[in-house]
């Protein structure tokens, strides 16, 4: 590319960043909430079987749930509550919030908390809340070189995929949870909602204990060694995570996609994790010499140097267990899930609702047309990478569920955008009175998955729990009368 062409491409990329920060059109949001948002499904989920059809139901349950709305100009409305599905639907349609967050179920109606406070008795407290996890790609900036900050592309997105696999397997196999909802955050990460009854009723202390169970990445930007796998034997959870998910992902995808050993600056970061100067000097010498003499293709140098590092650390002359375990520690440092621990520890933490629209959007078609028109002025790999990045950066995407059993197939660049969905509605020519308006749009697949794979099994379990609890109370009442 010529200097003039490079400067032009840089200017275009700068302009694309500006375009990407445009706000979602409020009129588009009104249409989305008026015609596509799955109110009934959300109400059924958050009612957990308390629909009034069984004498054992808690009629006040849904009305004690906190919702928060973010409106235009960052107006933030907390402690919203709704007794019925029409109440929820009418309020969202009226306010068209740019973001909806879901909080806990409180002991009393959160919108009336001030009235209870005047009694002098603190009765306003969270009593139930899903166990939630938040994983954000920005927390991986020290181990990815394709993007940084809020940017994400198809080279670094697999970090989110492997995080889903590791956490989901542990929640099911180690804790016995079954009703787990994974959701694309709309831009740069994933959220997890664990909805089993025993998960929703965990105390803050119990939530913190589960969060700490997953805590492996303990470093900060000033730490040379950010993961320490101490002890003579690794915990079975860590052994399974490494053998089933992390090792293969690191060696077959991450090494090459991020070029972890390509430059001296990058491999020095890895050498810092090895607590033996003689080993690091030996490897550094090989790689510096290799850089001067090797004619191997760049995409192979990462695999070559990783193999040399493993061979050196795991050879017979390395007696110390800590040194041998450096291989696993490096893999964990780069590939293990990085959780926002505070989100999981506290019952009253808010989390963005599924099927929200990410509050930022941009000129998707305009940007791609600019790229395509100037593709000849860019190298092929530059064009491909920028295109993949901006498919994801340009948000306004819906926070759709992710199937953990098929998360490798999830492509954030193909998540429906608000403008795309409204265009599909216009093509279909559907009216607001049509049943399942979303069924003919790109959102249909996500809602069908939500219903069949998550909501229906969850509600079946909830109703069985309500019936069992009600029967037990009846039996206790009969026993007490018989005395």
UniProtKB/TrEMBL annotation:
One cellular-component annotation, GO: alpha DNA polymerase:primase complex
Annotated SUPFAM superfamilies: Prim-pol domain
The keyword tRNA processing is assigned to this record: no
InterPro entries (alphabetical): DNA_primase_S, DNA_primase_ssu_euk/arc
Entry-linked Gene3D superfamilies: DNA primase, PRIM domain
EC number: 2.7.7.-
Record flagged with keyword Transferase: yes
Region of interest called Disordered, as start-end residue ranges on this chain: 1-20
Enzyme class: transferase
Keywords in alphabetical order: DNA replication, DNA-directed RNA polymerase, Metal-binding, Nucleotidyltransferase, Primosome, Transcription, Transferase, Zinc
GO molecular function, one term: DNA-directed RNA polymerase activity
GO biological process terms, semicolon-separated: DNA replication, synthesis of primer
Superkingdom assignment: Eukaryota
Extent of the signal sequence: none
PANTHER family (alphabetical): DNA PRIMASE SMALL SUBUNIT
Family recorded in the similarity comment: Belongs to the eukaryotic-type primase small subunit family.
Name of the protein in question: DNA primase
């Amino acid at each position: 590319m010529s200097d003039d062409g490079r400067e032009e491409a840089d200017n275009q990329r700068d302009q694309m960043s500006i375009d990407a920060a445009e706000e979602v059109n409020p009129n588009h949001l009104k249409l989305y909430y008026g015609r596509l948002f799955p109110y009934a499904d959300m109400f059924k989920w958050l009612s957990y079987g308390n629909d009034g059809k069984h004498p054992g139901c808690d009629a006040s349950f849904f009305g004690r749930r906190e919702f928060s709305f973010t409106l235009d100009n960052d107006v933030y409305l907390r402690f919203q509550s709704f007794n019925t599905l029409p109440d929820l639907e009418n309020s969202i349609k009226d306010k068209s919030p740019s973001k909806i967050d879901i909080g806990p179920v409180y002991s009393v109606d959160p919108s009336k908390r001030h009235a209870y406070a005047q009694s002098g008795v603190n009765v306003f407290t969270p009593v139930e809340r899903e166990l939630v996890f938040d994983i954000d790609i920005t927390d991986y900036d020290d181990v990815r070189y394709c993007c940084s900050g809020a940017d994400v592309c198809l080279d670094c997105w697999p970090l989110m995929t492997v995080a889903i696999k590791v956490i989901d397997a542990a929640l099911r196999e180690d804790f016995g949870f079954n009703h787990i909802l994974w959701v694309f955050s709309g831009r740069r990460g994933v959220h997890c909602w664990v909805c089993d009854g025993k998960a929703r009723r965990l105390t803050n202390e119990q939530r913190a204990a589960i969060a700490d169970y997953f805590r492996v990445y303990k470093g900060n930007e000033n730490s040379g060694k950010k993961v320490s796998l101490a002890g003579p034997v690794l915990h079975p959870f860590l052994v399974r995570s490494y053998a089933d998910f992390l090792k293969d992902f690191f060696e077959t995808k991450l090494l090459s996609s991020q070029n972890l050993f390509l430059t001296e600056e990058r491999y020095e970061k890895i050498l810092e994790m090895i607590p033996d100067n003689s080993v690091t000097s030996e490897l550094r010498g090989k790689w510096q010499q290799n850089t001067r003499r090797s004619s191997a293709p760049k995409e192979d140098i990462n695999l070559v140097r990783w193999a040399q590092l493993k061979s050196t650390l795991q050879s017979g002359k390395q007696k110390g267990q800590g040194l041998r375990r450096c291989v696993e520690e490096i893999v964990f440092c780069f590939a293990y899930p990085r959780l926002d621990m505070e989100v999981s520890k506290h019952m009253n933490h808010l989390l963005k609702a599924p099927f929200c629209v990410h509050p930022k959007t941009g000129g998707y078609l305009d940007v791609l047309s600019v790229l395509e028109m100037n593709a000849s002025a860019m190298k092929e790999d530059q064009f491909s990478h920028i295109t993949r990045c901006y498919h994801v950066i340009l948000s306004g995407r819906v926070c759709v569920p992710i199937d953990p059993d098929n998360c490798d197939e999830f492509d954030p660049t193909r998540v429906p955008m608000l403008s795309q969905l409204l265009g599909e509605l216009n093509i279909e020519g559907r009216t607001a009175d049509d049943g399942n308006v979303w069924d003919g749009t790109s959102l249909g697949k996500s809602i069908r998955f939500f219903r069949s794979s998550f909501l229906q099994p969850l509600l079946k379990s909830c109703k069985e729990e309500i019936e069992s609890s009600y029967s037990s109370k009846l039996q206790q009442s009969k026993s007490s009368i018989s005395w």
